[in-house]
């Protein structure tokens, strides 16, 4: 029997016995929905973590210079900066955007109206070059339209402690590269909200002004970040660039974990050593949390597939028992055993297809609904969220895996009873006395 005839008969039988298939339909649709919700929310959390870190560290690949001389430990002089950019250009690395930042995370103090606060992160950025990043900040007040050399942007935690508002003038104090305290007057141009671990007690000033305060020349910085069109290629390009840079300038070996990064920084050397880092290295501890979530999601995923398997097996056995005489009649009028098996399996897979489609749309609805749930009560969970909300990330690959998994489980549930029924003794089938 050709495929079109099998498909036509399967559709007719599916419509005829639609009420008997109703429970299995709901079980499959709900099961696929939950499986998809689990994978999409897990992937969404991983994406949010990556993009939060990517924005904080300003790149998919980040070149950071460390030195043992001077008060400021992170430093890339002009020679190091030129060597890095020349190597990137010579190796034809596809870069969508560059960033240069001067970083100071040691003991920056802000003073305002008798109050003071210690900044966790102070970043010197190029206002114009990082306009895209600055536009994406969630501003509580002010904005990034009128930034100048003496502008400062603060996180709302800092603003709250100091009691400052946009337009206020404050004093910033830090130690320059010679170990002397240096101060500057800054006008608060914007206050942004970021409750992730990367946003607490954070501030931005002009890179030009930051370099002046630290005693760096205008061309120098602390880190150079590059954004890639395909972030999955970051590890490959890290290997290439490390190999090339190591022959031109003092460079650390390939860094693959935060522990290795710390060990390399503790070593002794002379001059500036360049470290090439990817986002997973920076947030390896957070990735361990994601790994734990992955184990939980795998457990839930397996449980849902088992539920689908049991539901499909029980329901299909009952349906086949009721249709024994009908299947026996089909064999009596000339249907081959293989044809009957193909019809019944096709019938089930058609039901599975409808269930998967409905389950997918239901999963989209549920993940959007989950986005309205606030997790403000969960400390430090914001790093897994986008604008304080859960977001789903649907990928064709993962959805294909989910569909294949459901079809595979469905096939396991129906193949053995179908095979047994199609080969049962014909007299028993026609008399309705066949045992299950």
Question: Which features would summarize this protein structure in a list?
Answer:
436 residues; single chain; elongated; 14 helices; alpha+beta; 17% strand; 51% helix; 12-stranded mixed β-sheet; 12 strands
3D architecture notes:
The protein has 436 residues and is an alpha+beta fold. It has 14 helices and twelve strands. Helix 1 packs across helix 12, helix 2 crosses helix 12 and helix 2 packs antiparallel against helix 13. The protein is elongated and about 100 Å long.
**Helix content percent band:** 40-55%
Question: Roughly how many Å apart are the termini?
Answer: 27 Å
Total count of helical runs of at least 4 residues = 14
Secondary-structure class: alpha+beta
Main β sheet profile: 12 strands, mixed
Mean pLDDT across the residues is: 87
Ranges where pLDDT stays below 50 over 5 or more residues in a row are: none
The value of Rg in angstroms is: 31 Å
Give me the strand/helix succession: HHEHEEEEHEEHEEEHEHHEHHHHHH
Q: What coarse outline follows from CA principal-axis ratios?
A: elongated
Task: Tell me the strand percentage band.
Answer: 15-25%
**How many strand elements?**
12
